[in-house]
Amino acid sequence: MAERPLEIGQTVRLRLDSLAVGGEAVGRHEGMAVFALWGCPGDEAEVEITEVSRRFARGIVRSVIESSPDRVDAPCPHFGECGGCQLQHVSYEAQLRHKTAIVRDALQRIGGLTDVEVAETWGTDEPWRYRNRAQYSAAVNESGELALGLARFRSHEIIGLTECRLQHPLSEQIRTAVERLLPPIDQGGRERSLLLGVETFISFSSGRGLVTLVCEGQPAFARPLADALSEDVSEVAGVLFARRRGRAAVHRSPAELVMGEGHLLEEIGDHAYRVSADSFFQTNPAQAARAVDLVGEWANVGRGDSVVDLYCGVGTLLLPLAREARRGLGVEAADSAVSDGKANARAWALRNVTFYQRNVERVLPRWVERGRTADVVVLDPPRKGAGPIVTASVAKLQPRRIILVSCDPATLARDLKHLAELGYPCRRVQPIDMFPQTWHVEAIAICEAASAAR
Ligand SMILES: C[S@@+](CC[C@H](N)C(=O)[O-])C[C@H]1O[C@@H](n2cnc3c(N)ncnc32)[C@H](O)[C@@H]1O
Question: Which atom of ligand 1 lies nearest, measured to the CA of 280?
Fold first, then answer.
């Protein structure tokens, strides 16, 4: 602990040396860790303290005294005010280095896993305009103009955008078209405020897009806006509509089709998948192709094998594995993803695949009770991880190999710790940069049965 405690408002001079989960750079003041917002590891900086707890402090970089060799100019005009990116000021090569360190640190500190080989993070040649999905929020300014933007950094306030360099250009075209087209349709003004947000999903391979208008109630403008939008932007394949109760609510109703198609075909490497507006799909198609290939290589399924894919989405990982296996079972909670998965299995002419629309944590213990087993299990849970109930059931399926795909190093570490305790030690982890310019990192882990008898 620091000899003289830090105080809020105080400015300290620090050498920043690493990057933390969340994207802050970390330095030490008299031994106490200080997380410095907008710092770059390697900087010597003046940091204003904004929060102090017993074991660490947080602050914001007020001036850089000696710039890190890894510091670069952030190209986006919204960087620093927008909540989307945290690392545009860090060179891409350094982002990758620090992401590897974040994964290694989480495995050691949270999972106590010291003997796992964590490879260098796979970077991408396209660290910009890689996202296929956007969720813009609507805000109406004092003069009644509508802006579609993103939340301000650590705030719910919406900032209008001139551009977002993570998005596909078609998504930006749709955003500006909605901003332009909505006012003339709604002369009354009041209705306009019922538009809470706009979501886009772009197929990189076909260059076509889906648009979901998220509204409070059912505004009369939905249909005319959909027509105007598809006329204005010819690449819009479909417009959908979903209801949400107010700006603060997180959940919205399932999307209903207003015009055109409700799903797109997207290619990941050599594989084509149908994806509906509401279905989860990997955000970065180029890097997803590398993830699918690696899962295939590590799963190494044989003709006689049964494969279980938990949290399987539209079958992105399951279908290429099932094609090599005797049987493939996928479990997924979302209705639309299961419908897409079944359609994909048909399109791939796979008769050995079954999709179950269930919660993994509910169905898996039942499978175990009935004595079901699997040769290979793939898990790709949401950010909160699989958790102890699911990992315990996975081990009871007695697979010879488990492939865990994760977008959160902390929950990855916890799940790998449980699996190791259950007789499935992790041997290797490959981080993949799916989310350049942000601190987020995807990682794929392989665990193999410790017992040779399996
Ligand atoms: C990270 S995504 C992975 C999807 C798929 N593996 C892929 O690569 O496209 C997680 C998926 O789990 C689903 N999901 C979330 N919670 C679930 C649960 N409790 N049971 C089953 N599926 C769940 C989500 O709908 C989403 O499709």
Answer: 27
